[in-house]
Every structure is written in C-alpha cells, then in structure tokens.
Amino acid sequence: MAIEEKEIWDLLKQVVDPEIGLDLVNLGLIYSVNVVADDSVDIKMTLTTRGCPLHASLTGQIADIVKKAGIDNVNVELIWDPPWNPDMITEEGKKFLGYQTQQ
C-alpha cells in the first residue's frame, strides 16, 4: 500500500527545530512533499537562515523519519526561493510561540 502525502506531512511534524522548539511543518520550513512512487518521496524545504548550522541534522532527521515509514528513497532538497519569513509560520505554530496575530 502506498503512503499518502498527508502521512508524510504528519511524520514531518515529529522533526523539531531544537533552537525554537517547534516542528518544521508548523514553522513553515517544509515547502512541498511529493510521493513519487511507493518507495520514493521528494521533499523541498528551507531554513530560517542560510548559515543555519543545523541543516545536516534536520535534513538527516527528515530522511530518517520518512524511511522508518517504509520509504526507501527520500530526497530532501534545500531551497532558498521563496525565502522563509515569520509569516510562513502556521496559526498553530504562532500560538505555540506566543505570537499575537492581527485581527
């Protein structure tokens, strides 16, 4: 049985930015998930800054968590366009971080 894209998104919520304490999905760092085949997933993501020293750790955690779901080939591509900004944080993430939203 093929894994669904939503399942991958849910798995990625387990990968937390250790400096911020919020998962990468709710931080808005995961741009896309594409299930290419039953055993292959492509993920496009960014980081809050280009010089982030955690890039290897975070991309490795992403690959590991998806592989544990039975996906053999996980391609994590780091992209910079569009550049990340705090507006990309989900409403759930903003609540977690204590951001006040405009009404």
Describe the structure.
A three-stranded mixed beta sheet has the order 1-2-3. Strand 2, helix 3 (55-67) and strand 3 form a beta-alpha-beta unit. The chain has a single domain (5-92), classed as 2-Layer Sandwich (GMP Synthetase, Chain A, domain 3). 31% of the residues lie in helices and 19% in strands. The longest helix is centred in the middle third of the chain and has 13 residues, at 55-67. It has four helices and three strands, in the order ααββαβα.
How is the secondary structure organized here?
Layout lengths: L4 H8 L11 H4 L2 E8 L2 E6 L9 H13 L5 E6 L12 H7 L6
Which structural class matches the secondary elements? alpha+beta
Number-wise, the strands total 3
Strand content: 15-25%
Q: Give the CA-CA distance, first to last residue.
A: 43 Å
Question: What is the global morphology?
Answer: globular
CATH-assigned homologous superfamily: Fe-S cluster assembly (FSCA)
Report strand order across the widest sheet. 1-2-3
Question: Approximately how much helix is present in the residues?
Answer: 25-40%
Q: Return the CATH architecture.
A: 2-Layer Sandwich
Rg over alpha carbons: 14 Å
Summarize this, please?
The protein is of the alpha+beta class and 103 residues long.
Brief descriptors of the model:
103 residues, alpha+beta, GMP Synthetase, Chain A, domain 3, 3-stranded mixed sheet, globular
